[in-house]
Structure formats: C-alpha cells, structure tokens
Design a protein that fits this description.
There is one protein chain. With about 450 residues, the protein is an alpha/beta fold. It contains 19 helices and 16 strands. The chain folds into three domains: about 130 residues, 3-Layer(aba) Sandwich (Rossmann fold), CATH 3.40.50.2300; about 180 residues, Rossmann fold; about 70 residues, Arc Repressor Mutant, subunit A (Orthogonal Bundle). Helix 10 packs across helix 12 and helix 13 crosses helix 15.
C-alpha cells in the first residue's frame, strides 16, 4: 500500500469526516473540503497525490474540477464518487480525466483497493516518464559521438528528418549502430512520449513474425486462446523499428506494404481492419537493391521504404571516431564495473586504431569491456587486448611465395571460421554469448555457422 496526501471533497459532513478518519487510519495525510471552490483552492496550495471527490456539490459538480486539475496539475489523479452513478456519468468522468469512478455507499475494502490501484498506476506513470526522460537524454542526437565527416552527415540527416513521419531505411553492416540511430530519431521527435517498439525480424520464424507484428484473433491457430494485439498496434502513436527487414517472407512483405501505405492491418485469423498511426523505421545489413534484382524482395516495397535512405558507414571508414568511442566506452565500462581505468596506453591505442573492426562499434565496445575487466592498472595496455586486435590477420589469402592462390572468398572464410570457433570455445558453446563477443546478433552468427559448416559444432549446453 502506498501512503499519500489525499484531499477528500464531499458536502455530507458525516461521509467527509468518516472518510478522513478511515484514510488517516490507513496512514495517509488527509485534507477535507465541502465545496468545489474550496477544493480548487486547496489543490492549488497543497502538494497532493490524489483527490477523492463527490460528484454533486452545493456550488456545482466535481466535473468542474477536472479541466483545471488536468491543465495545472497533470500529475494529480482524481477519483470521483456518487450515490447516483450512471454509465453516462462514468463515461463523462473518464473522458474528463478522472482516474477512477466509484459509487456510494462506500465500503472500506473497496476504497482501499481503488486508492491503492490509483496510486500504483500513478507511480508506474512517473517511473515510465522518468525512463523516457533518461532515454531521451541518452539518445539525444547531440550526444551521438562522432567526428568523421560522413558520420556527421548522418547526424545532420537525423536532425532534419527526426520530427517527420517519413519512412526511413537505415542500411549498414552489423554493429554499426542502426538501432541507436532509430532510437535517436524517435526520442528527438514529437512521438518521444509514445512507445518505441523494436522487432528483430530475423530472430523469428515467418508465422511467429506475422503474429508478432500484426497480432492474432482468438482461435487463429493452435494455442491462440485469446485475442492478442501485435507490435504495430502496441506502437500506435509512436515508432516501430523493424530490424533485418530483408528476412521477411514474400507474403509478409505484402502485409508490410499495406500497413506502410495505408496505415491499416488485419490480425492473423481476423477480417476486421485495424487503423494505426505509426512511424516506421527499417534496417538491413544486406543490399536490398540486389535482393530486388534477384527476386527475393518486392520491388514495390523496396521503393516504398527507400524514401529516405541512411547509410551508416562501417567503423573502418570512420577512423576519426575510433579514439572518441574508445574513451567513451572506457568511461562507461569503468563506472559499471567499478574499475579505476581512465585511459589507454599509446601502444594499445595504436593497435586499436589499426584494427579493421569487422564487428564495427559493437565489437569495439566488447573489446573495451574485456580490456577494462583485465586491466591491472589505471589504463588499458596492449596485453589487455584480444589477439585478433594485437596480431592482425596474417595474409592467409596471399600465402607463402609459390603457394597456390585460392579464391578470395575461400581464403577469407578460413580466418572467419577460426575466429567463430574460438568465440564458441571461449563461450563454452553458448551461441548468444559467442555472438555478443563477436559483436553480431545470434541470427547472423547462425547464418555464418551454416555457411561455414559449423552448425554441428559446439551446440548450446
């Protein structure tokens, strides 16, 4: 039970004093008023958490209070009570901004429950708003760390389009920060107070993804006991981010095209059309134009989502950002791990700057976290870095003089296979952990393992 400052408004002196005494016995700090005017004055003067108000009073109805409370005290909840409750009154109360509506005669247990529920909802709203404020600060466009000219262009583009409804397609290799940019777009728009829903399309099967995105009706398939809203409905008013959109099946692409064009959908197993107001951001690490040319991605959907394309350059193309990101990750990891690390030696910095970062920013972050954990002093040394960073791949493709030259793709597969095997061994066969160490997602790791014939090796334990 939460304890709060409550104003009780009722013109019946017996009811008023009875409620005040009951609420005080529950541990609340309680005030009383018998008219709308007196209640309005106390609401403006006192720091209140809740108003419990009778509807019909000598100088008007409590409905007169609601507009002023909503305008001047948006965080204050009002619960209305009446001995003449009707459905119309209840609808008017909720539409007017009341948190709840109860009828007399009041029962102690009912009042206790209503107040407890109302205060809990208020706490959850405050916690949610606090989290949104933190997210807004964390993903503020001005906080994106970059010095590279190409990345600065990306940031400028974000500032330009953030507050629009335009569909955006973010392209770039895994680990370049596409999700971070999508979040930045949302939290720097007028939709920032509404939901940001992220869906990793590549992590779900076709049937699960369709149900996840569009929801389903009760009985739509085995196990669908109840109606379930999908992610598009959950994101109504806000933003939905569809990562790895290239993995969507042809049938799902048709549904995506419709919701992008018309803002409407049908749940799986249903016939009713649901209208949604959602800003759509998509991302992929593959060449969609090539996917279209090879018949794996719908041309009409491609042109519909490619309205504002943003290419995020890989880390090897934005070398000027590496030192900035290194120091940012050191500061953050040191604070999280409570380690006194605040710098990096020149030898370690040279190795970090020379490395090509195939896993991009995600890999850099993982390498720095590992180095902070291993560091024995106040700075990261070269010996704290993993071998693949300090010992750049020996030109396996070129081989020794006179050695037979093999196709480049085949040659590059060798070190990639060894790196993945090493990560799986280090992670004790856990693919989630191995993917984290490699700076890629689980589905990307599985695809690479399948291509390199590693799916039977080191299964998850």
């Amino acid at each position: 039970m939460s304890y709060a400052r409550i104003l009780v408004l009722d013109d019946d002196a017996i009811v008023l004093h009875s409620l005040i005494e009951f609420l005080k016995s529950e541990g609340h700090q309680v005030y009383g008023a018998e008219t709308v005017a007196e209640a309005a004055r106390q609401i403006d003067e006192l720091e209140l958490d809740l108003v419990l108000a009778d509807v019909y009073l000598p100088d008007g109805t409590a409905f007169k209070l609601l507009p002023g409370v909503k305008e001047r005290h948006p965080g204050l909840d009002v619960v209305l009570m009446t001995g003449y409750g009707t459905i119309d009154d209840a609808v008017q109360a909720i539409k007017g901004g009341a948190a709840n509506y109860v009828t007399k005669p009041l029962v102690d247990s009912e009042i206790r429950l209503v107040i407890d529920q109302t205060l809990r909802r208020h706490e959850l709203k405050q916690e949610t708003e606090a989290l949104r404020q933190v997210a807004h600060q964390e993903f503020d466009v001005g906080n994106i760390l970059c010095r590279d000219p190409e990345m600065l262009k990306v940031v400028q583009m974000l500032k330009t389009i953030a507050n629009t409804r335009t569909t955006v397609l973010i392209t770039g290799e895994s680990g370049t920060g596409k999700t971070m940019l999508a979040r930045a777009m949302h939290y720097n728009s007028d939709r920032a107070s509404e939901p940001f829903i992220e869906v990793a399309c590549g992590a779900l099967t076709e049937s699960l993804l369709e149900s996840e995105l569009f929801g389903h009706e009760a009985g739509a398939f085995t196990g669908a006991a109840h109606l379930r809203q999908g992610k598009f409905e959950a994101a109504d008013g806000g933003t939905i981010f569809l990562d790895e959109v290239a993995t969507a099946s042809p049938a799902l692409q048709v549904k995506l095209l419709r919701v992008i064009q018309d803002g409407c959908l049908e749940r799986v197993g249903g016939t009713d059309t649901v209208q949604v107001d959602v800003r759509i951001i998509l991302a992929t690490n593959v060449d969609l134009a090539r996917e279209v040319a090879e018949g794996r991605f719908r041309e009409d959907l491609y042109y519909r989502i490619n309205v504002v394309p943003i290419r995020v350059p890989p880390l090897r193309e934005r070398r000027a950002d590496v030192p900035v990101l290194i120091h940012h990750f050191i500061e953050r990891c040191a604070a999280e791990l409570d380690k006194p690390v605040d710098g990096v030696s020149s030898e370690a910095l040279d190795a970090l700057a020379a490395y090509r970062w195939p896993g991009n920013v995600r890999e850099l972050e993982n390498v720095i976290e590992r180095a902070v954990v291993l560091a024995s002093g106040d700075r990261i040394e070269r010996s704290d870095l993993p071998p693949e960073v300090t010992e750049p791949c020996r030109a396996e493709a070129s081989g020794a003089p006179g050695e037979r030259i093999v196709p480049l793709k085949q040659a590059l597969a060798r070190p990639e296979r060894e790196i993945i095997l090493r990560a799986l061994e280090y992670a004790d066969g856990n693919r989630d952990e191995a993917a984290r160490l490699l700076g890629i997602n689980r589905s990307t790791l599985f695809n690479k393992m399948r291509r390199l014939d590693l799916t039977g090796v080191l299964l998850n334990r």
